[in-house]
């Protein structure tokens, strides 16, 4: 009804009564105003809305509501409760004092909203209250016991209480209308209903990368994310006399109930593989140890030696080892790297075994698999989204790295090692191997695979930029070394400036920041401006020198015309002979006396590019990068690569969602992407914000796992009829998103029959000791057990005893005298194992009594 679909609001305030603090809360259903309400005000004898609500049958058993809404069917009420959680109104005299104060307040103000006072301890949810209208009053009373008294375990006993409480003077008594709901709980789903296979850890540790390939993330919940199914069977409109329910016999068979509705109880924070994977990697960010401390190198130093300074440790770590070209298989590379590490560590101490390490290195450096020379050609991976797709370009938003890049693959491998192969030690070991590999490639002129050509891409994470920088250095060094070989035979002078024009030095974002800081510190004075211009014109000067060498006797105009055409203005003029000719001159800014261009041109000497001092010293820059990589602690590394891991996790979640097609999950994924791009775009994001992102990803993973669990339980894939399959899928998606879902056709509908089977097989498991019966699939079992009638005779019930039974009794009778006005009376009762509660609302006429 409207109680579920509408919006509830609450306003609270605090008041003091003597020296006792109370909180006052006003709960109400937000309603669209209608003209009808205005007319009602004119009629004197209209009873208050809350009294009308007592009899309304459209809003019984709302799935999500305040307990007073469920018990009394109210759409507006005020609650006065002790403000402190530990306080309670325990004595009867205090309770009566409060109630009489409430009664006076209602009478004085003419308020027709019911007012409740909470008494006893909060956990008992005990309320007493009152509602007043013109000449009418309703008293709200409550009984709460731990155990159900024997005489009140059935409808007949409850009817007796209700009638005696009304004390109606009329005979015969007007008929009592009844609404009943029984709730059944299914807890023990059979094991085969949960489809998630845990990854095969043994296969992984053994180095066989079977169930979980490197570069693929795990996904799914390790336990069933749906813990219980609650089936509510409802009889909404019964009248006394139609139905029998006493201690001997009951007509209330759940299969015959006209309404069925279902809700699922979700497991609290189920363990999810992807979430755990990313969380464990994130934990590395908080570790303080350096790679050397983790791998325990200093423990293996010879006795009496002082621990060497960082530069010495670095040179140890990166000792060049000449390797003949023909031995460049992965195993040889690993072998040379391993030898260096073994100097300081026993063989058995290696956190990663050889097989795992080889597999990873082969995955990261596929070019090393061939025995041929490494030529830096990148291999493409078929699993990646196409390069122009939105998913591929996600790295721009996350400041991570493209999903086919070495950096991205390294992040995934470190993640996997951290989770399955030796934790932090394994991470430190692989990183050390990786740094050795980078050093090896630099010294032997082998390009690093999996990186885009060109200068560092500032849209990617800093580590990716550093690797690109190293690749630029390798490229320059390689070209230089090859140039040396050919330069002996190359004595040609270029008349065109082909030799001129050096590319500006490639830079990573940290170097750019440093440079801009230096330039900013020069200040705004004339001298500062001059220095800044000189620094920025280093590249210009180099180009001028190359140009002069290639074009002897040239002028500044020639250089400007080639280098910056917009600063060379050409006009058509008529010469002495009357011919139209092009006459060129420098732009106004170039004619400013002693400007930077003129000064640079005057100081430039004709030197070919290859003989000039290198603008970009690749050797120095490469060593800087290698040093930077070597000093990264695992925590620094994890911070660099976390955007890549989050990027991969988002892609994984998107891929899994596309198989299930859950609209609510699509929305959440969009939110995660926009949230992550805001957080990750700035350097050093806060841990709390990163945790939030990981938590959101885990929640989505749990949602998809729940959808799969429900689809498996309801067998949506086994449905042969397309229409039935669609209905089931719709039903499952509603179960995920709504608090309670109506089962079309109740026990006789398609979903209803499946739910019935689930309960039957669970009953067989609990009541039968026959193991074969326990192992049989529910369909066979269901048919083998014959009809419901036969099962009843065999005394095996299809359903367990109800976990909760709710009854609502209503009638309209004159009270307290036969000539009083006929007013609504209502009593709600709930019977569970733990409690017995009666909530009565009894109205009386205050004019004619």
TrEMBL record:
Domain Rab3GAP catalytic subunit C-terminal positions: 641-849
PANTHER family attached to this UniProt entry: RAB3 GTPASE-ACTIVATING PROTEIN CATALYTIC SUBUNIT
Signal peptide, first to last residue: none
Start and end residues of each stretch annotated as Disordered: 484-504, 784-803
Transmembrane intervals: none
Matching Pfam families: Rab3-GAP_cat_C, Rab3-GTPase_cat
Gene Ontology cellular component terms for the protein in this record: endoplasmic reticulum; Golgi apparatus
GO molecular function, one term: GTPase activator activity
Keywords associated with the record: Cytoplasm, Endoplasmic reticulum, Golgi apparatus, GTPase activation
Compartment(s) where it occurs, according to its Swiss-Prot or TrEMBL record: Cytoplasm; Endoplasmic reticulum; Golgi apparatus, cis-Golgi network
Name of this protein: Rab3 GTPase-activating protein catalytic subunit
Domain Rab3GAP catalytic subunit conserved per the UniProt entry, residue ranges: 502-629
Family: Belongs to the Rab3-GAP catalytic subunit family.
Biased composition (Basic and acidic residues): 784-793
High-level lineage: Eukaryota, Metazoa, Chordata, Craniata, Vertebrata
């Amino acid at each position: 009804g409207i109680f579920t679909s509408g919006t509830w609001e609450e306003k609270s305030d605090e008041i003091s009564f003597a020296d006792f603090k109370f909180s006052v809360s006003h709960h109400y259903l937000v309603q669209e105003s209608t003209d009808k309400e205005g007319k009602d005000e004119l009629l004197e004898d209209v009873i208050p809305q809350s009294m009308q609500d007592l009899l309304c049958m459209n809003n019984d058993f709302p799935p999500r509501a305040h307990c007073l809404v469920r018990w009394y069917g109210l759409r507006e009420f005020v609650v006065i409760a002790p403000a402190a959680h530990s306080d309670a109104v325990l004595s009867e005299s205090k309770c009566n004092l409060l109630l009489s104060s409430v009664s006076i307040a209602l009478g004085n103000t003419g308020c027709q909203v019911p007012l409740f006072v909470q008494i006893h301890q909060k956990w008992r949810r005990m309320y007493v209250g009152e509602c007043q209208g013109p000449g009418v009053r309703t008293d709200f009373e409550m009984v709460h016991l731990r155990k159900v008294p024997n005489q009140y375990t059935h409808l007949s006993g409850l009817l007796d209480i209700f009638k005696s409480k009304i004390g109606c003077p009329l005979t015969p008594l007007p008929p009592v209308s009844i609404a009943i709901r029984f709730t059944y709980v299914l807890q023990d789903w059979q094991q085969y209903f949960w489809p998630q296979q845990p990854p095969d850890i043994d296969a992984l540790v053994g180095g066989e990368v079977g169930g979980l390939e490197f570069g693929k993330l795990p996904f799914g919940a390790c336990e069933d994310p749906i813990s219980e199914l609650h089936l509510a069977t409802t009889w909404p409109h019964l009248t006394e006399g139609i139905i029998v329910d006493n201690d001997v016999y009951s007509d209330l068979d759940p299969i015959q109930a006209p309404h069925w509705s279902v809700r699922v109880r979700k497991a609290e924070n189920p363990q999810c593989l992807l979430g755990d994977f990313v969380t464990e990697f994130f934990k590395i960010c908080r570790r303080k140890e350096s790679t050397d401390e983790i791998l325990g190198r200093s423990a293996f130093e010879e006795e009496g030696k002082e621990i060497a300074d960082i530069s010495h440790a670095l040179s140890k770590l990166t000792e060049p080892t000449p390797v003949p070209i023909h031995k460049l298989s992965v195993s040889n590379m690993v072998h040379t790297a391993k030898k260096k590490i073994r100097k300081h560590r026993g063989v058995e101490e290696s956190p990663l075994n050889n097989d795992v390490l080889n597999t990873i290195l082969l995955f990261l450096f596929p070019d090393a698999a061939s025995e041929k020379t490494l030529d830096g050609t990148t291999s493409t991976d078929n699993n990646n989204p196409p390069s122009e797709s939105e998913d591929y370009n996600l790295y721009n938003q996350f400041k991570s790295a493209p999903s086919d890049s070495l950096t991205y693959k390294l992040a995934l491998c470190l993640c996997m090692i951290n989770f399955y192969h030796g934790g932090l030690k394994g991470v430190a070991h692989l990183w050390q191997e990786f740094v050795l590999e980078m050093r090896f490639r630099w010294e032997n002129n082998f390009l690093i695979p999996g990186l885009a050509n060109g200068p560092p891409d500032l849209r990617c994470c800093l580590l990716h930029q550093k690797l690109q920088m190293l690749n630029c250095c390798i490229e320059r060094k390689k070209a230089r070394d090859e140039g040396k070989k050919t330069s002996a035979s190359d004595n040609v002078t270029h008349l065109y400036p082909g030799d001129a024009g050096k590319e500006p030095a490639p830079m990573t974002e940290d170097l750019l920041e440093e440079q801009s800081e230096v330039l900013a510190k020069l200040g705004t004075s004339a001298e500062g401006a001059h220095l800044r211009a000189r620094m920025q014109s280093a590249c210009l000067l180099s180009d001028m020198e190359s140009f002069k060498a290639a074009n002897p006797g040239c002028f500044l105009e020639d250089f400007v015309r080639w280098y910056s055409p917009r600063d060379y203005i050409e006009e058509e003029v008529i010469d002495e002979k009357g011919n139209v000719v092009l006459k060129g001159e420098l732009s106004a800014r170039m004619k400013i006396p002693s400007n930077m261009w003129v000064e640079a041109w005057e100081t430039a000497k004709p030197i070919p590019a290859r003989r000039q001092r290198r603008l970009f010293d690749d050797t120095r820059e490469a060593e800087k990068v290698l040093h930077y990589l070597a000093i990264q602690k695992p925590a620094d590394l994890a911070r660099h690569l976390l955007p890549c891991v989050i990027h991969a996790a988002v892609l994984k979640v998107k891929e899994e969602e596309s198989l299930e097609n859950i609209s609510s999950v699509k929305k959440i994924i969009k939110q995660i992407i926009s949230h992550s791009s805001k957080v990750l775009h700035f350097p050093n994001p806060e841990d709390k914000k990163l945790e939030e992102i990981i938590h959101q990803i885990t929640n989505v993973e749990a949602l998809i796992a729940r959808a799969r669990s429900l689809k498996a339980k309801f067998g949506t894939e086994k449905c042969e009829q397309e229409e039935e399959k669609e209905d089931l899928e719709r039903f499952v998606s509603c179960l995920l998103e709504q608090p309670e879902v109506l089962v079309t056709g109740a026990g006789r509908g398609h979903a209803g029959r499946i739910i019935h089977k689930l309960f039957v097989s669970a009953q067989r498991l609990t009541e039968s000791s026959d193991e074969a019966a326990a192992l049989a699939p529910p369909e066979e079992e269901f048919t083998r057990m014959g009809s419901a009638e036969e099962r009843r005779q065999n005394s095996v019930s299809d359903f367990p005893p109800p976990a909760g039974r709710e009854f609502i009794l209503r009638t309209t009778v004159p009270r307290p005298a036969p000539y009083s006005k006929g007013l609504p009376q209502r009593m709600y009762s709930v019977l569970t194992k733990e409690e017995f509660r009666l909530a009565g609302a009894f109205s009386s006429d205050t004019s004619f009594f």
